[in-house]
Amino acid sequence: MPRHTWTSCWRSASAPRRLPDQPAASAVIAAAGSGERLGAGGPKAFVQLGGRALLHWSLDAFAEAKSVGAVVVAVPGGAENRVPDGAAAVAGGASRSESVAAGLARVESELVAVHDAARPLVTPELIDDLVEKLIDRPDAAAVIAAAPITDTIKRAGEAHEVTETMNRDELWAVQTPQVFRSAALREALDTDPERIAAATDDAMLVEEAGGKVLIHPSSPENLKVTTRLDLRIAELLLAAREAG
Ligand code: C5P
């Protein structure tokens, strides 16, 4: 299987799903960022994208995913009433992982799908694929979405002098959703605050705690909105998707 194909690498598209009748996972959506880099003058999760708040695109995908029941959204303190009915709202923390921990405190299921509201192009199929794969792999603590790297990546020192060219075949651009065994994520988040503050994803904390993390190849279309340009690209992709 070539690593650059992201359409279901482990399950053929025609194979029936093997998900339990009842949703196996809950979801925590991290939406408590300030959105400073976007310069929208307010939290990124509520920036308008294709006529609705950025957060709502992810909420729709999770509502449609068969593998997910309860959804908890971590938003900036005071914005809890901006989360639509059907999802629970909690006040997020100072860092992304603290926001995830606040959401996780409300999760009762054995599995949890953690997702950044900043990725509005997530699909129900991707969510279900990730949950299904974790159910199939009892040895794993997490399954995470990631796209193959297409650029050549180099490491450079302070003077911008190149010290290493990485082997691209082994590199992945990590995305969300990331699906965890809830107990493994809880344990990983129970670490010193500096590590939590520095974590750029939750899988990293699970890896550090010795948990096995598996990659599920996914499309680069599941992009993260950070800048105005990302917002424009996401708008175009969503419009194309809606147009069929
Ligand atoms: O800032 P960045 O885009 O990396 O944030 C990734 C995700 O984490 C976003 O969806 C953002 O809302 C969320 N976040 C959070 N709490 C924070 C910081 C970021 O929920 N304190």
Task: Please describe the topology of this protein.
Blueprint: E1 25-30, E2 48-49, E3 52-53, H1 54-64, E4 68-75, E5 88-91, H2 96-104, E6 111-116, H3 124-136, E7 142-148, E8 154-156, E9 162-165, E10 172-181, H4 182-189, H5 193-198, H6 202-208, E11 213-217, H7 228-242
Parallel strand pairs: 1-4, 1-6, 4-5, 7-11
Antiparallel strand pairs: 2-3, 6-10, 7-10, 8-9
The structure holds cytidine-5'-monophosphate.
Cytidine-5'-monophosphate (C5P) is lined by residues 30-33, 44-45, 74, 92-96, 99, 116-118, 226.
Describe the protein.
By secondary structure, this protein is α/β, with parallel strands linked by helices. The protein has a single domain, classed as Spore Coat Polysaccharide Biosynthesis Protein SpsA, Chain A, CATH 3.90.550.10. The chain contains seven helices and eleven strands. A seven-stranded mixed sheet has the order 5-4-1-6-10-7-11, sandwiched between helices. A two-stranded antiparallel ribbon has the order 2-3. A two-stranded antiparallel sheet has the order 8-9. Strand 8 and strand 9 form a beta hairpin. Helix 4 crosses helix 6. The longest helix is centred in the last third of the chain and has 15 residues.
Short description:
The protein is α/β, with parallel strands linked by helices. Helices cover 28% and strands 23% of the residues. The two termini are 28 Å apart.
Topology-level CATH name: Spore Coat Polysaccharide Biosynthesis Protein SpsA, Chain A
The number of strands is 11
Terminal residue distance: 28 Å
- Give the overall average pLDDT: 92
CATH superfamily: Spore Coat Polysaccharide Biosynthesis Protein SpsA, Chain A
User: How many domains is the backbone divided into?
Assistant: 1
Outline type = globular
Strand order of the largest sheet: 5-4-1-6-10-7-11
| Percent helix | 25-40%
Individual helix count: 7
The CATH class name reads Alpha Beta
What low-confidence regions span 5 or more consecutive residues with pLDDT below 50? Answer: none
- Biggest pleated sheet: 7 strands, mixed
Q: Cofactors and ligands present?
A: cytidine-5'-monophosphate
CATH architecture: Alpha-Beta Complex
**Beta-strand share of residues:** 15-25%
The structural class is alpha/beta
Order of helices and strands: EEEHEEHEHEEEEHHHEH
